Every structure is written in structure tokens, then in C-alpha cells.
Amino acid sequence: MKVFHIQAATPLCTNTFLLIGDQGHAVAIDPNAPAQRYLDLLREHHAHLAAVLLTHGHYDHMGSVAELRKATGASLMVSELDAAPHVDERLFPPLDQVSCYGDGDHFSVDDMDFQVIATPGHTSGSVCLLCGEYLFSGDTLFCGDIGRTDLETGSMAQMNASLRKLAAQVPDDVQVLPGHGPFSTMEQEKSRNYYLRAAMEDPK
Ligand SMILES: [Zn+2]
User: Fold this and answer.
1) pLDDT (average), residues 103-121
2) Distance from residue 48's CA to the centre of ligand 1 (Å)
3) Could you report the per-residue pLDDT of 42-99, keeping only the tens digit for each?
4) How many angstroms separate the CA atoms of 202 and 204, rounded?
5) What does CATH list as the number for 2-201?
6) 123 CA distance to ligand 1 centroid (A)?
7) How close is the Cα of 46 to the center of ligand 1, in Å?
8) Minimal CA–CA distance to 137: which of 124, 149, 152, 122?
9) DSSP 3-state of 150
10) What residue ranges in 71-200 does DSSP mark as E strands?
11) Domain spans of the chain, in order of start
């Protein structure tokens, strides 16, 4: 598997990723950079896009989904809760023809095995995607920080439970690739991230 980091040159600088497996099947995670950047990489590596995976349903994680799907026929996967209609359609653009994934789901594309970890808090349908040594943590866990919990369907109580779950389920040597900002590791976050530490120390 090859992992490409494609940063969207938008005000929120979303981190997006293109993963290309050994047999040339690829997935895009939270594609928000111009579609051509993914398409150029796919062509360069003789790969085809099998699926687009979203960590959650916010607009700044899906700007090129429609164009990429039109160009490649890729399927779109997102959690059921974030695919559902929302009051704030600017924040949660409506999605169609989605396949939904949920907590504990495992699926493979090429040589890439994904585990879905539901991590509500930033949105009720937020997930983190564990793939080998990488955790695509969306807007749940950042380097030294966490995502906002004050937007539609956000919940600090759910976020704390999700942080505890990540600390329990994700090995220390896993690389954390968040939706915004620098990359990290679980070990570093467990030792330095105030919110993660506080959640881990909370006896609930
Ligand atoms: Zn978000």
C-alpha cells in the first residue's frame, strides 16, 4: 500500500489521503482537494479508484466527491448517521447513493484492510478508520487537540467516550493522520493530548 497525503488548499486546510494498494485498487479518504490531483496520481500509478471513504459528513471533507465519483464510478462510504439529512445543509451537504459503514465493520480493498471505529462527538456519525499502521482520525483526534463538539449533532460527552475507546483499541505505535493539522502517533497523543489524557483518567 502507498499512502499519499493531499492537502486541500482551502481555508480549513483539510488533510486528505489517497491510498493505492499493491494491485492498483485505490481509496480516497475525505477528498476535498481538486479532483484532478487524485486523478493525476491514479493515472501516474496505473490505479483505479474503488471507493471514497468519509470520516464524517462535513462539507470540508468531501469537496471533490461528486467529481471523483463521476470520473471513476467509485462507491461512497460514510456512516448512516452522517449520511442522514441534517438541518444545516451547508455543513452537512446531502449525499446520495452511499453505502453505510458502522462500528466494528471490517472491509478490504486490495491489500488494505480497514476497521471502522465509531467515534461520535464531533458529529454523531464520526468514525476513525484503522488501516494497518495508520489511523485516519478525521476531526475526532488531532495532534494535541480534538475536534469541535459544538456543531450540529456534536457532543462532548460522546467525544470523551470515543477518546477512551480509541485509547483502549488503537495500539501505541499507530500513526495518527487527522483531518486537520500535523500528524502524530497514538503514543504521543496518550502522553501529551490533554483531552485524551483527561478522558482516559475519567473513571466512567
Ligand atoms: Zn468536521
Assistant:
1) 98
2) 27
3) 999 999 999 999 999 999 999 999 999 999 999 999 999 999 999 999 999 999 999 9
4) 6
5) 3.60.15.10
6) 7
7) 31
8) 122
9) coil
10) 75-79, 99-101, 106-109, 112-118, 127-131, 134-138, 141-142, 145-146, 175-178, 184-185
11) 2-201
